[in-house]
Amino acid sequence: MITIKDVARVAGVSPSTVSRVVRGEGKVGKVCRAKVQKVIDELGYRPNINAQALVNQKSNTLGVIMPNVSMSFFGALACGAEQAAKEQNYRVVISNAFGSEKAEMEAIDSLMQHRCDAIVMHSAHASDEVLCKLADKIPGLVFINRFIPQIPNRCVWLDNNLGAQEAARYILSKGHIDIAVITREVMNSDAKLRFEGIKTALNSAGVSLNETNVGRRDADMAGGRAAVRELISNGVKFSAVLVYNDNMAIGVIHELHACGIQVPQDVSVIGFDDLLISVACLPQLTTMHYPVEEMASYAAKLAIELSENSISSGRTHLFMPHLVERGSVIEATAIETEIG
Amino acid sequence: MITIKDVARVAGVSPSTVSRVVRGEGKVGKVCRAKVQKVIDELGYRPNINAQALVNQKSNTLGVIMPNVSMSFFGALACGAEQAAKEQNYRVVISNAFGSEKAEMEAIDSLMQHRCDAIVMHSAHASDEVLCKLADKIPGLVFINRFIPQIPNRCVWLDNNLGAQEAARYILSKGHIDIAVITREVMNSDAKLRFEGIKTALNSAGVSLNETNVGRRDADMAGGRAAVRELISNGVKFSAVLVYNDNMAIGVIHELHACGIQVPQDVSVIGFDDLLISVACLPQLTTMHYPVEEMASYAAKLAIELSENSISSGRTHLFMPHLVERGSVIEATAIETEIG
DNA sequence: GTGAAAGCGCTAACAC
DNA sequence: GTGTTAGCGCTTTCAC
């Protein structure tokens, strides 16, 4: 690998001069600059980022911590972060931290060791307290898809409650009254918020939600299937299902189909997240769009900004989901059969 | 950030000694080691990776270059690489390089600048020649999902031809004779190989494939839809469709559905790749499983190994796809209606 | 066994 | 304008 000294020697100048032209800062004579640039090009010189990081005490690195890149949601997250980072001349290092607070803390630790200036973290397992302490120690740390009241300016989050309300109101507007809700068994903050949003909307429309009408299972396709199956076998009567997320919703559609119940003719289904798969399903899933990429990109910029200026302005970073109408919801009046 | 000197000072030893205990190498007295370790723990000292990289001339970084992490296939790729890297105490930096050879070269450039020792690259746009030169310059560079004859030991690839043959034979074994093929318009190496595999299997079964029975479009859902639509409007008669990949296959299923043709009752459809979405579709897609994660993990290990030893053994790294039977293919005899 | 010293590639004062 | 020097945090001879 060719170094700054090599360039300096060949160009017949000092390393400082080369450094100046590379960074485009400081005074350098016009002809001298041209000469040096020529040598740089000829030799294909690239500054050693590690050396730069060492001397500058910053590494221009954005760390992204999340459960698993291979899951569509997190892939989109990583992608959004990468785009924003690239614009600011940051590289991004990905750290999967799946399943436990321990894994998450190890990821942070490793990123710190690399002197990551900025970090975007999707934490599912650490407590607010732990995260607050972390945020306190690391100025460039930003949380995505999570709201921590003590550090609102460090959180880039989605209004799950309002989103769920919108979904519910949409279903109501379609004339549905017999409504089932499927949520996740372990109620994390998202699940609580979305569930409450649904209840709020239903209540204010004068539609009551009986606990017998809510299914609770794992937040994946299998969970969705199991949840509706139980609802059906319990004799619950419904013409529409509000589902916690797209994965579960797809499961719901599949199970309904297996039971000979057609979506949307017999039952309408609405999801949440707008994952890639929602469009692969037949019928395509009507769902609430979660602007992951935009949020991730925003979070990345925020993290970088915070790491550089540490100005922790009081502004909040709240995003709104919006409805995407596809094929899984229709008017209740159009329903021919009703199960139950 | 606390440095090796801080630890040395507090522990009352020299930096060299601290370095020895941190790395667990070299002779250190037992009590001395314990004392130093204690200070390390108390102070929460973490070696600065940038400094290590600088002095060791290696950064323990694995670079992953691909079009776009947010696409399910590449997410899985990144994930496989990350897992393998973590095991070897490497960090992974992701670089999206979408759409052009230029973008790919810039990604390489940036990774070199970071002194990445090992790189796993998914190149869609660079030529074999360019890639060969690169491989020559960078010992730890490995290509995934691509076979370059001149450097077989640097390529981790899938036998697309045999996979396609298997898919075709499977369809034949189900009694289908009227077969349509949908491939991509711009025939990259994968597309050619898969198409030839299909022809090989069909030929040796004495089934001829007329060019009128092949649709060529973009390799996405919309392309799949457009391709069958054309086939149908051209009056082509078929009871099964062999599709280039899952995305197109899903599009095919959707379009067929829109035309009132049922899958698999009227027409069987088989895909290739086994993306996450293949299971979201209804019916779930029968397809050839592409072991991306295993391959990526293997490629990561290979890249790291090559970067460390540069022993470029002559072995090849060929993987095999395998059939995953789900719901989109049935016996031809079971077909009630045949379109055309 | 342990420490002193040099140097990895770069930048940032400070001279000239 | 340009060069000299010191030093970022670490590892690695080489003395002792």
Automatic annotation (TrEMBL), chains A, B:
HTH lacI-type domain ranges (all copies): 2-56
PROSITE patterns reported for this sequence: HTH_LACI_1, HTH_LACI_2
Keyword DNA-binding among UniProt keywords: yes
Pfam families: LacI, Peripla_BP_3
Record's keyword annotation contains Transcription: yes
Keyword list, A-Z: DNA-binding, Transcription, Transcription regulation
Entry's Gene Ontology molecular function annotations: DNA binding
Record Gene3D superfamilies: 3.40.50.2300, lambda repressor-like DNA-binding domains (1.10.260.40)
Protein name, per record: LacI family DNA-binding transcriptional regulator
Native species: Thalassotalea fonticola
